[in-house]
Amino acid sequence: MNDTAETLDRKIKGDVQAAIVYAGQQNLPLAIRGVSVDPEAQTAWVEGGATWADVDKATQVHGLATPGGLISDTGVGGLTLSGGIGWLRSRYGLCIDNMLSAEVVTADGKLLRTSESENPDLFWALRGGGGNFGVVTGFEFKLHEIGPEVMFCAPIYALDEGAGPIRFWRDFLADKNDRIGALVEFSTVAKAEAFPRASWGKRVYTLAAVYAGDAAEGERLLQPLREQGELVSDFSGRMDYCDLQKMFDAMMPFGDYRCYWKSHYLSGLSDEVIDSIIQGNAEPPSANTLSSIWNFGGATAEVAADATAFGDRSMAILSSATQAWKPI
Asked: Strands 111-115 and 233-234, how do they pair?
């Protein structure tokens, strides 16, 4: 290390020390959220404590992104180690499919680097095995050219209008799962000015979809999803990728709710299954009950079942139910 590098290293460490001392004096919460991007290699190094908002902000400066979640304040570590299902899964797979390497502190205190060539068994386990194999202090992700503008489709239909739009959504995606990440989100309309007052408190579903490519092309391709009947509202539009990643933040406010999730993979989505899901969503336990249907296939399905700890990728549909509540 030359004198200039040593001087810079000391300065960085001094800045970190000063920040820690200041945070302690001011009683401020402190977390490490380091993200560094190599735009030429199209990779990102993400350290502990980072959220997907941190990653997206850093990578989009270069018009790059890696598959993340749907809620921006989700932690990178927790989502990635469990697999990581996001909008870009159609063309680029899950979070773990884009993980090139990781640094892990094991239970015996060893710091290990893992990749396809270094500690490959541990690398396999980290990709979908959850947080059971040590503390990951850093992730290296592969990046892809996407954004800054993308197309987000989000027409909202009343539940009592029936299953027609969902059946169309199913058939429409049959040959497009390699380009479109989509879900049907069942929810209760909030009492908010963003929605018509006549719809407040009613059960609805959103045909949400993101085209993993050119925004103008995506707008043309996704237009039919917005034409399947009378709309309660429509939040579709071409938007900044970072804004897209925050679209569902309000549904799961950070720190305000406790949540319970349950999901099940389906080999397909028959008319009978759609009718059953609609019936089950007509009278939910509470207005905070959410339910969704996710499409799979595309890049997600191209990964062999034994390639990662995530397992079988042959599923066509994921059905999920969520109950959220505020703690007493």
From this structure: unpaired
Residue with tokens 């599923």: 315
Cis peptide bond prior to 148, omega within 30° of 0: yes
Residue owning tokens 């094991």? 106
Q: Rounded to whole angstroms, how far apart are CA atoms 255 and 258? A: 8
Written as tens digits, the pLDDT of the chain (328 aa) is 455 545 645 554 466 557 667 877 888 776 556 899 999 999 999 987 899 999 999 999 999 999 999 999 999 999 999 999 999 999 999 999 999 999 988 888 888 999 999 999 999 999 999 888 888 889 999 999 999 999 999 999 999 989 999 999 999 999 999 999 999 999 999 999 989 999 999 999 999 999 999 999 999 999 999 999 999 999 999 999 999 999 988 777 666 778 888 999 999 999 999 999 999 999 888 888 889 999 999 999 999 999 999 989 999 999 999 888 877 7
Q: Could you write out the three-class secondary structure of 185-226?
A: EEEECCCCCCCCHHHCCCEEEEEEEEECCCHHHHHHHHHHHH
Residues contacting 108, CB < 8 A, separation 6+: none
The rounded distance, in Å, linking the Cα atoms of 94 and 277 is: 26
Rounded Cα–Cα distance for residues 110 and 176 (Å): 45
CA separation for the pair 231, 80 (Å, rounded): 35
pTM to 2 decimal places: 0.86
